[in-house]
Structures are given as structure tokens and as C-alpha cells.
Write a structure and sequence with these properties.
This is TLDc domain-containing protein. InterPro entries: TLDc_dom. The protein is built from no helices and 10 strands. It is an all-beta fold and 114 residues long. The protein has one domain. It has a 4-stranded antiparallel beta sheet with strand order 1-2-4-5, with no helix packed on it. The protein has a 4-stranded antiparallel beta sheet with strand order 7-8-9-10, with no helix packed on it.
């Protein structure tokens, strides 16, 4: 749905949580580049709750991962379009701050807007 749409902001409300998470990608998502990392110093991921956490990219060469299975900011992966079995994955590799304690969460609602 976001394929070749230009810069995007992803916003997710987590089920059973007050937290809102997301990220900014200044590069086109491109399904034809599946399996490739994109280099950018402008992307970031965030968490909005009692505390606002903004995590800027620190490893520019692996900031964005092009995937045919969903959106991947490397540290914030929305795999298989947020299915209940797959959910959202968090790691700490390419961005400055680890902002989630859990490794996997399931989003509350799935709504895609471009």
C-alpha cells in the first residue's frame, strides 16, 4: 500500500496499552528492493506515552529495510502486515534508544492510509 509513495509516517496504537509508537521514513518503500537496506540519516522511530521517546537513527546504512512482508525501520518491524500471530517486533540495532521493554506486541487496530 505504501509502495513508492514517498516519505511516510507510520503511527500505531497498541492493544491493551496507552502507548502510541511509530516512525518516519524519508525514502520510498519499494517492494522491488526486497531484502535491501536503505541508507539515511533522517529517519527516526518514536514512542508516545507518559514519556515521549524519540530515537534517531545511529547506523545510517541499516536505517530502513525494504521488505515485501511489511514495514521495517530495522529496530521497529511491522511484519506480515500486523497479523495477530506476527505482531510488531522491537530490536536495538540501528537507532539511538531502545524504547520498548517487550520484544513483540500486537496492534489494536489495523488501518492503512496513504
Amino acid at each position: 500500500m505504501c509502495d513508492n509513495k514517498g516519505p511516510t509516517i507510520t503511527i500505531i496504537k497498541l492493544k491493551g496499552e496507552s502507548t502510541i509508537i511509530g516512525g518516519y521514513n524519508p525514502i520510498n518503500w519499494d517492494i522491488n528492493k526486497h531484502g535491501n537496506y536503505e541508507n539515511t540519516s533522517d529517519s527516526f522511530i518514536f514512542s508516545l506515552d507518559k514519556e515521549i521517546i524519540l530515537s534517531r537513527v545511529s547506523k545510517y546504512d541499516t536505517a530502513i529495510f525494504q521488505s515485501s512482508r511489511g514495514i521495517s525501520f530495522r529496530d521497529l518491524q511491522l511484519i506480515d502486515y500486523f497479523s495477530a500471530e506476527k505482531g510488531i517486533y522491537f530490536t536495538h540495532n540501528s537507532y539511538s534508544k531502545k524504547y520498548m521493554i517487550l520484544d513483540t506486541l500486537v496492534p489494536k487496530n489495523m488501518k492503512f492510509l496513504v
